[in-house]
Every structure is written in structure tokens, then in C-alpha cells.
Write a structure and sequence with these properties.
CATH architecture: 2-Layer Sandwich
Strand order of the largest sheet: 3-2-1-4-5
CATH class: Alpha Beta
Strand content: 15-25%
Structural class: alpha/beta
Number of domains: 1
CATH topology: Nucleotidyltransferase, domain 5
Number of strands: 5
Number of helices: 5
Shape: globular
Length: about 170
């Protein structure tokens, strides 16, 4: 199964495609990772359009089974939070438009799933991404490593949900 992780950002939007399964801990393969960059001097609507086109091309090329987007949970700076939320909206809407299941996780949920510690540092998460995917080096840039971590979180969370299903109230 292929899962596309998206670390939303308007200037730099990370993406990472992971192949994995719902069995075993070391069963991840980083297939592709990188960033979509837009020029901050260009109008926002043009940048969001570019992001839409590039993510659509990525989805068409990689054919993921699901998409994971980092949930904008908290930002100290509203100037940063708004463009991140806009980029996130583009990614979520695009996945929905092409009938892909979408999950969203906060940074803390990703840290917990990937390292076992919800307050792990960025470098600890990136180191675990490299280890879980059998990579010699930490993926660069950081946005790409974060996107791979999001995709890994999908698998880790799904494993737990399968082992311990939540029963509906009667």
C-alpha cells in the first residue's frame, strides 16, 4: 500500500510517498520525497494554484491509496498559520476530489507514532524516519522528512486501530 504524506506550506510544501503494510515494524520504504516550492513574490492565488497543479501531478504519477496531511493545530504567528492552513486546504480538497481517503494528524501525534514520545524533537523524528525506512541518511529537506513521517503515522495508527478497534456505543 502507498501513502502520500503532505507537510503543508505555501512557500515549501513537503511530500513523501511511503510503501508499507499493517504488519511488522520495519516494513516501510520511502519511495519518493521532496518539496513543492512557490515564489513568495507571486500572488497567493497563483501560488495556491501552482501547489494544486503540482500536487495533482504528484498524485497522478504516484497513485497513492491514501493521503495524510499535517493538521494545523497551533502556530504562534498568524502570518504563518494562514498560508499553512490554505496549503493544507488545497491538499485535503484535492485528495477528496480524486476520491482518496484523507487522514490528518497533528505534529504531536506524528511524534508519538514515529518515536513513541509526543514531545520528541524534530531531529529525533527525522532520525526515526530514516531508521524505519532503512535509509542511510535523514531525508532532506526537513519538509520532505516530515512528510514521510506523516505517511508512516498513517500506517502506525492504522495498525493500532486494527489491533484495538473502537466499538460503537449500542
Amino acid at each position: 500500500m502507498f501513502v502520500l504524506g503532505i507537510d503543508p506550506g505555501l512557500t515549501r510544501c513537503g511530500f513523501g510517498l511511503v510503501e508499507g503494510s499493517f504488519e511488522g515494524l520495519e516494513s516501510f520504504r520511502a519511495v519518493r520525497a521532496g518539496v513543492v516550492e512557490t515564489d513568495p513574490k507571486v500572488p497567493v492565488e497563483t501560488r495556491l494554484g501552482q501547489l494544486l497543479v503540482e500536487l495533482r501531478t504528484l498524485i497522478d504519477e504516484t497513485k497513492p491509496h491514501a493521503v495524510v496531511v499535517e493538521r494545523v493545530f497551533y502556530q504562534r504567528n498568524a502570518k504563518t498559520a494562514i498560508p499553512v492552513a490554505q496549503a493544507s486546504g488545497v491538499a485535503v480538497a484535492l485528495a477528496g476530489a480524486v476520491d482518496l481517503p484523507v487522514r490528518q494528524f497533528t505534529a504531536q501525534e506524528v511524534k508519538l507514532a514515529v518515536t513513541g514520545y509526543g514531545a520528541a524533537s524534530k531531529s529525533q523524528v527525522q532520525g526515526m524516519v530514516a531508521r524505519l525506512c532503512g535509509l542511510v541518511e535523514i531525508p532532506k529537506p526537513a519538509d520532505a522528512a516530515d512528510a514521510l513521517a506523516l505517511a508512516i503515522t498513517y500506517f502506525m495508527t492504522a495498525r493500532m486501530e486494527r489491533r484495538y478497534p473502537v466499538e460503537s456505543p449500542a
